[in-house]
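Schema walk-through. Below, the input block comes first and the output block second. Nothing else is stored per chain. Lengths vary across the set, and this one has 367 residues.
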Amino acid sequence: MNVQTISDTTAISIAGVAKRFGQGKTEVTALKQISLQIQDNEFFTLLGPSGCGKTTLLRILAGFEGVSEGHVEIFGKDVVGLPANKRPVNTVFQHYALFPHMTVAENVAYGLRRLGKPEAEIQATVQRSLELVKMEKFAQRKPTQLSGGQQQRVALARALAPHPKVLLLDESLSALDLKLRQAMRAELKQLQKATGITFVFVTHDQEEALSMSDRIAVMSDGEIQQVGTPNEIYEFPVNRFVAAFIGEANFLETTISAMDGAIARCRTDKGLELEATCPVAHQPGDRVTLFLRPEKVRIRAADSGGIAGTVTLVEYLGQATFYHVDIGSADPILVEARNSDLGAFDHKPGDRVSIEFGTAALRVLAK
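--- output ---
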């Protein structure tokens, strides 16, 4: 397999894009001054809750929606006002939109025939495309004779057959069951690298975004909250929305009592003293929110050092157990313990325990 790498070429440039629907009292702003650049051969994900504007932005890229303001360029060409069929993009929809009366091969060939490609080229491209998604043995079946995962592969083959410069995927794994969805993540990422095509993927599923993406744009209420690699988004969220939306998180409202370089000494309203890493300068007296991932908290027996607390709830989730520990803060601290270590952490509601975490694990949110 010829694996491609992300290039320095900008595939998509979005500058100051706004989108409004309706007029006057019924006007709704779906996108607010979005600016973004996506590189060639990048697997880029638009992530956010329902109604945040991610699908609207994808439809603008596809040419199915116009912009109210701003500019969109695809490989240096302004595409605002350019119809969908004139753009170097293809879209894979949530429900695949396969033609039920056509065979798998005919579905994949459909777009090529509309482009007027020679028949010999069409047959060769269909064969290559089906081999790419491991569906060549099903070429003569109808979509109704396929499983959901197989239909998804056919939709991908059809979209990839004309070799678009950009492939847009709108919640394209959400119709699959959990196990198949997990299996398709790896296949989709491998397919993207093998083809060298820029993928723009829309999802509300944090695990999908983290497992497949080169970079992620987290969206909320028509705005981009943060753009970064999966590691940057998860480990260094810029605000409480991003921290809470990506995985599980603990939050502590505190007041800064002193600064020592990049370390903030903070005090909770209950008088608990904590040290946290601080990415921006603050003054004593500033109110700040501290952020802590559950897997970075260690739970120990009572009186073993650390912060004393009481277990209020235990959630067994197979690979891990989550403990809710009341330490006197506004909300209990969520602690994740891997079940490979369960013998050391077999606590029950009502047990007195201690929790520990490093200064590097506790961070002051920038906003």
